[in-house]
Amino acid sequence: MTQEPPPPKHGPVSFGRNRTRDQTPADAEKSGPARRDSPEPGPGGKVSANAGNRPAKPRGDGAQPPAPQIAIRPIAPQARVKKRHRWLILSLMLVVVVPVGLATAYLYLRAADQYASTVGFSVRTEEVGSAVEILGGITDLGQSSGSDTDILYEYIQSQELVTRIDATLDLRKIYSRPDDDPVFAFDPTGSIEDLVTYWGRMVKIYYDGGTGLIELRVLAFRPEEATAIAGAIFLESSRTINELSAIAREDATRYAAEDLDSAVERLKQAREALTQFRSRTQIVDPEADIQVQMGLLNTLNQQLAEALIESDLLNSTLRAGDPRIATAGRRITVIEARIADERRKFGVGGQGPGGEDYATVVAEFERLSVDREFAEQAYIAALANYDTARAEAQRKSRYLAAYVKPTRAETSQYPQREVLIGLTALFLFLGWAIAMLVYYSVRDRR
User: Fold this and answer.
1) Which stretches of the chain score pLDDT less than 70?
2) Who contacts 296 (Cβ-Cβ below 8 Å, separation ≥6)?
């Protein structure tokens, strides 16, 4: 039996289908077929183009041709810490770890405790039904109070409310009480705009537009001060709602009041014109005066009839030339003349009791009477409309209902130190990671 030659010292070499000691099965699978299919050099070291596609010719003695040698690369050296790794760690410490540590130290060592007071309220509208509405129907003069809640939501964040509460409670002194906390405390030398901005940090508003509920979380450095600020906000909001309700009532009755004033002025002018007419003509009621004149005409007509009858009797019983017949004739003439004069008073150019045309006087009186009658009817209708509008406005009552009264805190829950530290670390790390990715992407493109 022959002895196999020892393996070479410079690296493993495989012959045929046997793999080296240091070669893995995967390497053998990858390298074996590729090497077996590779073409063999021909005479002179040249490789034929179709050599890789032709099967190897068997040798005469039936032995397989030797497999080509495979070169194995050396193993990669162990990873070491480089300069760029040290810069990454240093930047991470400077950008993330150190600021987070400083923020943590400040929050736990110098940040003053804050106490929260909660108050919740909504705008309510109570409508009391009236008997007139039940019987026949009066058109509603008001709308829902949803818009009032929106107005109140904006008012709580306004400069006017901050100014009013500052004048009442001295917000600058309350919010600048911790002298050693420049981050969370207010600078008392700041302007009103600065105070309004700080107010937005200390007063959080939660508004549900569907239900119309408003809830406030008021922060302060003392629990009693937080409760006082929440109560002041509720009082100012209630005052604002009362003003809005008064304005709504005034708007609902304003047009009716204007119509009533116009009707009163019209009636006053009609009555004054009729009074001036009576003073000028000295006739209180031309209709009554006409009735008197008509009675006088009727009396004269009766006397004329009696005089005619008497004259006929005298003419039939006495002889001609009797003085009584002449007297009766003169009486008839006088009565007829008087009747004619009385009738001329009612015609064109006739003189009335005041020396004016009687027909003109009567026509003017009738015109003034009609104006006064229409003015009285308009006044009655305007007064009824005004009373209805006022009753409708008064039965609609808006008020501010508190479903959570201002609370008083027993423990400090703010500032939320753990949350602030976590958010600070998160945003700093994200900023650092993005900056590093951008830097190395730009460097690798160069």
Assistant:
1) 1-63, 79, 126-146, 284, 286-290, 293, 345-359, 396, 446
2) 342
Q: Which domain holds residue 338?
A: 261-392
Give the domain CATH number at 151. 3.30.1890
- Could you tell me if 319 and 214 lie in one domain? no
- Residues 266, 318 within the same domain: yes
Q: What is the pLDDT of residue 122?
A: 87
Q: How far apart are CA 343 and CA 337, in angstroms?
A: 10
Distance of CA 25 to the CA centre of its chain: 76
**Position 274 in a domain:** yes
Contacts made by residues 9-16, CB under 8 angstroms, sequence distance 24+: 11/71, 11/72, 12/72, 13/69, 13/70, 14/67, 14/69, 14/70, 15/66, 15/67, 16/64, 16/66, 16/67
Same domain flag for 181 and 221: yes
315/379 same-domain check? yes
In whole angstroms, give the CA distance from residue 391 to residue 130. Answer: 9
Tell me if the pTM is above 0.85: no
For 315-356, what is each residue's pLDDT tens digit?
888 777 778 888 888 888 888 888 887 777 665 555 555 556
Q: How many domains does the chain have?
A: 3
